[in-house]
Each structure stands twice: as C-alpha cells, then as structure tokens.
Amino acid sequence: MLTDAPKDNMGEGAHFSPTDLVGTALGTCMLTIMGIVAQRDDIDLSGTTARVVKEMSASPPRRIASLTVEIRVPRQLTEEQQQKLRNAALTCPVHKSLHPDVAVPVEFVFG
Questions:
Q1: Cα dihedral across residues 53, 28, 63, 2: positive or negative
Q2: Is residue 15 scored above 90 in pLDDT?
Q3: Distance between CA 51 and CA 30 in Å, rounded?
Q4: Of 40, 58, 105, 110, which shows the fewest CB atoms inside 10 Å?
Q5: Tell me: the pLDDT tens digits for 54-102?
Q6: Are 37 and 88 in contact (CB under 8 A)?
Q7: Burial letters for 39-54: b for 16+ Cβ neighbours within 10 Å, e otherwise?
Q8: What percentage of residues in the chain have a pLDDT greater than 90?
Q9: What's the confidence (pLDDT) of residue 45?
Q10: H or E element: which one contains 71?
Q11: Helix extents (H) in 7-72
Q12: Per-domain residue ranges for the chain?
C-alpha cells in the first residue's frame, strides 16, 4: 500500500494519506459491524454505502479534527432494524478507538 503526505504538508498528494486511511477504516468498520448484525438478523444491506469526509485541524498540532460519516441503506426497514444497525455502526472498534477530541457526526439515511 502506498501512502503520501498531502501537498499542504510537504507531500505530493499522489496517494492516500495516513489520515485518509483512518477515515476509510472508520467507514469500513461501521459497515462491517452492520453487516454482521444484518446477517444474524436477516436484514438485506445490499447497496449500502458509507461516505466519510475528513477535516484536519486549522491550528497546530496537525491532527484529524472531524470525520463526518453518512451511511446510506437503500431499503425500507422497520424502526427496530434501523436501530439495530445504528447501534452496530456506533459500536464498531474504530469508532470506539478515536480520541474524544475528534468530532464524529454520523447520519443514517434509510430508504
């Protein structure tokens, strides 16, 4: 796997930055844990996507300030199923491992 620093931090921006990979890890972890719950409870998650937008801090030290997550499930699900999937996503290990100073707003879009 190739990584690179962004252009604004002495890199070429030719590859994903290590902090981009943190956002990727968060989105894929949330979907993975949702998938485990969906398989257990027979919920169809086909076509589900996660979008993560990373924002870096404006002042030193350079760090991830926020990871905004949007999870889209293109199905009509019951309120109980939706809640199970929300709980699953929000308890994924990557989400639980992030420092409390990192803002992680999560929006779920069902249907």
A1: negative
A2: no
A3: 11
A4: 58
A5: 999 999 999 999 999 999 999 999 999 999 999 999 999 999 999 999 9
A6: yes
A7: eeeebebeebebebeb
A8: 86
A9: 97
A10: strand 64-73
A11: 18-41
A12: 7-110
pLDDT band at 11 (very low <50, low <70, confident <90, very high): confident
Residue 25, by phi and psi: left (phi above 0), alpha (psi -120 to 50) or beta?
alpha
Closest CA to 3 of 20, 25, 26, 24: 20
User: Which residues, 6 or more positions from 109, have their beta carbon under 8 angstroms from its beta carbon?
Assistant: 70, 71, 72, 73
CATH architecture of 7-110: 2-Layer Sandwich (3.30)
The model scores a pTM over 0.85? yes
Task: Give counts: helices (H), strands (E), the chain.
Answer: 3, 3
